[in-house]
Amino acid sequence: MTFNFFINLVLFVIFVLLVAQSKRIMQWSLSLRVMLGLILGLIFGSVLQVVYGEGDATLLKSVEWFNIVGNGYILLLQMIVMPLVFVSIVSAVAHLHSIYAIGKMSIMTISILLFTTALSALVGVWVVNVFELTANGLVQEGQNVSVILEDRISQLGDMNVPKMILSLIPKNPFAELVGAKRTSIISVVIFASFLGAAVLLLKKDDPEKGEKALLFIQVAQAWIMRLIRLVIALTPYGIFGLMTKVGAISRVSDILNLLVFVIASYVGIILVFGIHGVLLSISGINPFRFFKKILPVLAFAFSSRSSAASIPLNIEAQTQWIGVPQSIASFAASFGATIGQNGCAGLYPAMVATMVAPSIGINSLDPTWIATLVGVVTLSSIGVAGVGGGAIFAALIVLPIMGLPVSLVAVLISIEPLIDMGRTALNVSDSMLAGTITSQILRKTDKSIFEK
User: Fold this and answer.
1) What is the DSSP letter of 169?
2) Predicted confidence band at 140 (pLDDT cuts at 50, 70, 90)?
3) Chain centroid to CA 174: how far?
4) Of 72, 132, 195, 245, which has the maximum CB count within 10 A?
5) Positive or negative, the Cα torsion across 238, 239, 242, 245?
6) Greatest CA separation for the chain
């Protein structure tokens, strides 16, 4: 075991060095190196699983060490999320010409997020009916239902809309900056917006002090952005580590047991990506160029399964590759990580509800029921931010509101990681879409950057 373990580590290091050499020798761009890391990691991990077999002790020990690279990269990104969001939002608001522009930009961004969530819910309903999926055919582990869902349901507590809204208001901004609550990102956005607005007002009341405050913010932002570029340079290696883990430990049996649901989910995800492309085209943006530019960010979101950890890459891509102003990119990335997630809070709960409905005698094709479901899913996508997000939480909010039992879909938790990768990529795509379209509507996009 020890010998094989060290061989695995040596091979892992060799592949990491190969990814590194693609920059030094072949002068590959970051996008190409990210894709190289993704492909090599998936191949290497899959080969290891074939060689050792699922659940082998040597394989699991190797993956534990591989995680130092993959999970270490995620931790580095999470480390810079709060400073980035805080400084970016303060700077964005402070540089606006009018305090009223904050509301216009925020409302437009959130409206796009919620609109696409509603469309995602419709896609979820359509996919389930086309594939004729029902909860009855999936519940094979009913005896474990209460155990599986007990912890997740308890975390929802008695959360309602008023409590959810109050939970977003930062009582202690310093605690929010260290992620004290699940709603900390939104709370930091709110606090930073007020702080930026205060700078705007200070510039009017005392121009000299206002300019000094603005200069301090600019220096802080430049400092944080340099840190971000330092961490982002490690993306190819982080992706390689993450995809190696995915290839090595993905349970083939889980995929086969619920293969139809997995396929239906990814069909829905692809369709929503297509809707994103249509919306971009309507807005006068080339969707093919857009997706080509953001592919490295989607690759990271896919492998990390974390919308929040993707925020730094998200903002960097919008500003440096698409030409969206820092202010709009920061708002879109921050709100998009918690509100109106197309995959986790739109597509998935709609699919689950549509699957469960026939089991209690509800016609899932009834227009009134579909309209109600879409409305509930869209509104609850805001509420998910109040309970920490996640597709399972979204489903646990939507199902009771629609009068549907939650226990019938507990078995889907077993394949969550497989579907969550695609859903997270869709979430991140939507936040970038919201920023890009908002920038386009407000005529703030730097076309020279996008056309490069």
Assistant:
1) S
2) very low
3) 24
4) 245
5) negative
6) 71
14/230 Cα distance (integer angstroms): 22
Contact between residue 425 and residue 294 where contact means Cβ atoms under 8 Å apart: no
Q: So where are the chain's domains?
A: 2-450
AA identity, residue 182: R
Give 55's DSSP letter.
T
Amino acid at 441: I
Cα(19)–Cα(417) distance, rounded to whole angstroms? 26
What DSSP element (H or E) covers 438? helix 416-441
Q: Which of 88, 325, 86, 92 is nearest to 185 (CA)?
A: 86
Amino acid in position 220? A
Q: What is the pTM of this model?
A: 0.75
- Measure the CA angle with vertex 417, ends 414 and 421; round to 5°: 150
Residue 169 tokens, joined: 């208001």
Amino acid at 371: A
Q: What is the DSSP secondary-structure string of 65-84?
A: HHHHHHHHHHHHHHHHHHHH
415: which 2 tokens?
């394949």
Which CATH architecture best describes the domain 2-450? Orthogonal Bundle (1.10)
Asked if the model's pLDDT at residue 389 lies above 50, the reply is no
